[in-house]
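Thread: sanity check for a docking pose with 2-oxoglutaric acid

Original post by kr_44:
Hi all, I'm comparing my docking run against an independent structure prediction. Below are the sequence and the ligand SMILES. Could someone generate the full complex and paste the structure tokens? I mainly care about where the ligand ends up relative to the chain.
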Amino acid sequence: METIANLVDEILDGKGYALIPDVLSVAQAAEVRSLIIKLADLERQTGKLFVHDQKERVYGLIYKGEIFEQIVQHPALMPVLEAILGDDMHLGDLSAHILHPGAVSMGTHVDYPYWAMKPPFPANPVMVLQTIWMLEDFTEANGATLIAPGTQRTGLPPDPSNFAETAEKITGKAGSVVISHGLCWHDTAPNLSLQPRVAILGNYNPKFIHPIQDPMRDMQQAVIDRASPKLKQLLGMEFQAALFNTIKRIRTQGWD
Ligand SMILES: O=C(O)CCC(=O)C(=O)O
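Reply from moderator J.T.:
Ran it for you. Here is the predicted complex with 2-oxoglutaric acid included:
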């Protein structure tokens, strides 16, 4: 098993990503996958699902099943994420990404907030790490993530021809998780199989980065009420609490 220090080195100074196997058992991965398929069906019916060509996203996962509350703060990943982003990091987003049969590549990119910034991108501090949860085997054919190793060190936006020559297809067993540096150029491969490829994507940022998704999207009070201190921190509750207190003060005392 890789040590935390080795994983951190690989992400910062090596390939820019690391694969951690067996974070979920194959049976657990299958259970989570079928929950996501159900959620997507439900959101498709209610017009909530985000659909782009053959690709779908379910957002606000934190509030859509207790398993996601565990996934987002999984002990196999937290030490690596925190070693890079700080133990006061925030969640930028936890969503599901479904690539249906026939889905084409999403497009080579770096992750938010880098794509919203002017290059060259600063090497420090690291502004986003992405976790990619394989809920089934990622294979040569079914739309595995493509990553161009070492490109986090360029500090530049993707160069399509360089990416086409150097990108690696990240295959792995259901239940594995990839942690990737948001500056690493990446994409999805086309899904040439007959089954949807389902993944969970977690994006984590240092606390000073505005999250790409509202952490209160689809909020369920019960989740907040039972949240661990770590989950509260991931959801930026220290800021939410400050906001609630300010609103309460303004309501009772006015603006002065
Ligand atoms: O679904 C994947 O394999 C990767 C998706 C991705 O890179 C993204 O949403 O930023």
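The helical segments are 4-13, 26-45, 66-71, 78-85, 160-166, 221-226, 229-234, 237-253. Hope that helps with the comparison, let us know if your pose agrees.
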